[in-house]
Amino acid sequence: MELIVTALELGLISSLTVLALFLSYSMLNVCDLSTDGCFTLGAATGAAVALSGHPFLALPAAMGAGVLSGLVTAVLQTFMGVPSLLAGIVVNTGLYSVNIAIMGNSSLLNLNRTSTVFTHMRSVLDGTILSGQYRLLIIVATVLVVFVLLTVFLRTRLGLAIRATGDNGAMVRTSSINPAITTITGLCIANSFTALSGCMLAMYQRSANVTIGSGMVTIALASLLIGNAFFSRTRSITAKALGAVIGAFVFRLVYTVALRFNMPAYMLKLVSSVIVVVAISAPYLRDRFPEFVRRYRHGRRADV
User: Fold this and answer.
1) Going residue by residue through the chain (304 aa), what tens digit of pLDDT does each one get?
2) Cα torsion for 112, 264, 226, 149, to the nearest 10°?
3) Residue 1 and residue 253: Cα distance in Å, rounded?
4) Which of 32, 66, 75, 159 is disulfide-compatible with 154, CB 3.0–4.6 A?
5) Concatenated DSSP letters for 232-274?
6) Is 7 exposed, middle or buried (0-12, 13-18, 19+ CB in 10 A)?
7) Rg of the chain taking only CA atoms, in angstroms
């Protein structure tokens, strides 16, 4: 049970990044490779603000930093002609130096003796029946707020314009919609979610280091693809966003089980890569399976 709760907590934290990728990749059709750096940016900013004595201000501060990261990435794409993949790589590389600067020229910030939103909730719930689940309550509440805001936003006029930009950019240009504005808005919101996810993880594990976001884009992509498998036949935005959250939990559960079997830490990146390959290829192999069976049976008859 403890294993499942841990996987649920970490999965829900990473689901914020998955929802960000759901917006940028699935809705806006932009592959943002600045995710790793933006995740670390949120963790570094949130940890620095918490260390200054403002744990609740750490969350909006991290999101604000994520907005700035998304703004830079979007401006490079829309106004400077940099391809989206290269823009993400450039921003991700630059954020390494920015994150070190935010952390005071250090690669690690320790929050063991610092008040966070989790320690505050623990003191509030002390002596109640929910005192043992204070971390899960905060994480669920945060994810629920982001989930509702995102699904409602995607049904607004601006949200529909973002979805239209991802579906058919040429059509959007002929409809008096500026794709640059929709791209900037979408990436700013997505990166704010990613930074919030990093901030939550830093306060959850009571530390932030410069490599905390390493591999997050792979984890988020795998989780998103896993979630799509649950709701592949629906066009509902709410269902697809819910699938992203479920996918994050499933991925983290597999990850946690791998750790439970004493798998070496250096093998976990390989596990992430394998999960991504399986998530991507599974729908293709499922569709091609009847053809494989027909070819096999035809070959058997020919041999006879």
Assistant:
1) 677 888 889 999 999 999 999 999 888 888 889 999 999 999 999 999 999 999 999 999 999 999 999 999 999 999 998 998 899 999 999 999 999 999 999 989 999 989 999 998 888 888 788 777 889 999 999 999 999 999 999 999 999 999 888 887 777 777 778 888 999 999 999 999 999 999 999 999 999 999 898 888 888 888 888 888 777 777 888 999 999 999 999 888 887 777 777 777 677 777 777 877 877 777 777 778 788 778 777 766 655 5
2) 10
3) 12
4) 159
5) TT---HHHHHHHHHHHHHHHHHHHHHHHHTT--GGGHHHHHHH
6) buried
7) 21
CB neighbours of 73 closer than 8 A, spacing ≥ 6? 32, 34, 87, 88, 91, 187, 191
Contact between 49 and 291 under an 8 Å Cβ cutoff? The reply is no
CATH label of the domain that carries residue 270: 1.10.3470
- Encoded tokens for 126: 């002390």
Q: Looking at the 3D structure of the chain, how many domains does it have?
A: 1
pTM higher than 0.85: yes
- Report the C-alpha gap between 201 and 36 in whole angstroms: 13
List the alpha helices (DSSP H) in the chain. Answer: 2-21, 35-51, 58-78, 84-102, 117-125, 134-153, 157-167, 169-173, 179-205, 216-230, 237-260, 268-303
What is the CA 87 to chain-centroid distance, rounded?
18
